[in-house]
Amino acid sequence: MVVALIASAIFLTQATDSQVLAKTNEFVRKLALLDPQVKYPQADVEIDRSGPPDSPSIWVRFDGPEFLVRRSEAEVQVYSLQSPSHNSIPWPDQPITTDRLLSLAASYAALGDIPIPLHVFSYERASTDDAAYQVDYIGTYRGVPLMTNPSSYVQIDPANGRLLFASYRKPPTPPSDLLPATSGDQARNTYLSYLFSDARHHRNRFTGQKFPYRLTELSPPMLCVYAPTKYEQQDEDSFYTSEQVLAASQGRGTLVWFLRYDVPPMVDGAPVTRKFDGFVDAKTGRLLRFNEYWPMGGGGTIGPKSPPRHAPLHWDMPSGKIGILSSGKWNWVPAASVSFVKERASPKEPRYPIVLSFGQVVVPCSYDAKTNLLATGMLGRESLGRPSPNLAQALRHLKPGA
């Protein structure tokens, strides 16, 4: 017999048993409208009080249906469909369509009081033994995403669209003013200036490099609302004001720009092993948070693809606006380019340490004014490039050792 569990987590001083049961039953009632296999009303409800008496959570179990729901402050946090079989469910020959998948994800998100329409980060095969799609998302308000860390997600049966698992994260309350006073470009410049600054030594634990050899911007800076967690507020790479910390403790968010990058693998097709993201205040332009991740493993992406990655250590960037970061300041050169140079000899003259930004690609490198060569490399290998005349002119205005 399939035993389904509905679990609810609450702060005992804020939600009574009757409130928890009422909210849980309402969740089941709405889910039954989406899934005919769900029975409503439920029977044999059990509140599990076996945990510590001072625990902020409480479990509620329903015998018969196929659910597991955990609730906090009378709000659904987790739902899980339990199967009595220990055999893996195979992937279907004809899975549901992408449109159907995303439509169901929005419906299941609404069950957890996530405001829609959704901002979907990714949809992919879940890293589970059973076949499942996983959709990672956040809610929105007046078109502005309400960021949470981590994001909410649902896992959906690819054969019939049933909800298998859901993790709901309460979104922050947005401020009344949702108009930024800074641009996404300004936020990008602020974030990258910090990443490549001496104030933050991002040393690669495997190669000993001070900075990543190349970054790929995964998406343009995204305007959103975010409230930092307690852990983030105490980290050395967090710069929230006391007012923003107080607001976060009350569930209120700050209008920010969200930026994210990854480090392309040295070999095309290899998995990404290093990621960066963070937040910049959309009103003041201050850096608020910097994160660095070392992800391991994961499912095969079937959803929106990352931007095309240029082959490592290869120039031939498309012509366009190129940014030069030197001494913490950005200079932008329109209609510039860098062409690949096949020379093997490295420049011998003193080099200017700089960072070049080619749209979605960011490359730390050095410039030799005498030979007019740019050099970037990793693990003892080096790739040379020759800047276009207008870019070379801008580079020559830099001072050695800047």
Give a quick precis of the structure.
With about 400 residues, the chain is of the alpha+beta class. About 15% of the residues lie in helices and about 30% in strands.
Characterization of this structure:
The strands form 3 sheets. Strands 10, 11, 12, 13, 14, 15, 16, 17, 18, 19, 20 and 21 form a 12-stranded antiparallel beta sheet that branches. Strands 3, 4, 5, 6, 7, 8 and 9 form a 7-stranded antiparallel beta sheet that branches. A two-stranded antiparallel sheet has the order 1-2. It is of the alpha+beta class and 402 residues long. The chain folds into 3 domains: 17-167, no CATH class; 184-193 and 212-293, no CATH class; 320-396, no CATH class. The longest helix has 18 residues, at 17-34. A hairpin with a 4-residue loop joins strand 19 (361-368) and strand 20 (373-378). It has helices at 17-34, 98-111, 184-195, 230-234, 242-249, 389-396; strands at 45-48, 59-62, 69-72, 75-80, 119-125, 133-141, 144-146, 152-156, 163-167, 215-217, 222-226, 254-262, 275-281, 287-293, 320-326, 329-336, 338-341, 352-358, 361-368, 373-378, 381-387. The model is unreliable at 1-13, 64-69, 202-208 and 296-312 (pLDDT under 50). Helices cover 16% and strands 31% of the residues. It contains 6 helices and 21 strands.
Largest sheet: 12 strands, antiparallel
Q: Which residues form runs of ≥5 with pLDDT under 50?
A: 1-13, 64-69, 202-208, 296-312
Helix percent reads: 10-25%
Distance between the termini: 71 Å
What is the number of E strands? Answer: 21
Shape label: elongated
Overall number of domains: 3
Strand share of the residues? 25-35%
Q: What is the helix tally?
A: 6
Question: What Rg, in angstroms, do the CA atoms define?
Answer: 25 Å
Q: Which structural class do the helices and strands define?
A: alpha+beta
| Integer average pLDDT | 80
What letter string, H or E per element, gives the SSE order? Answer: HEEEEHEEEEEHEEHHEEEEEEEEEEH
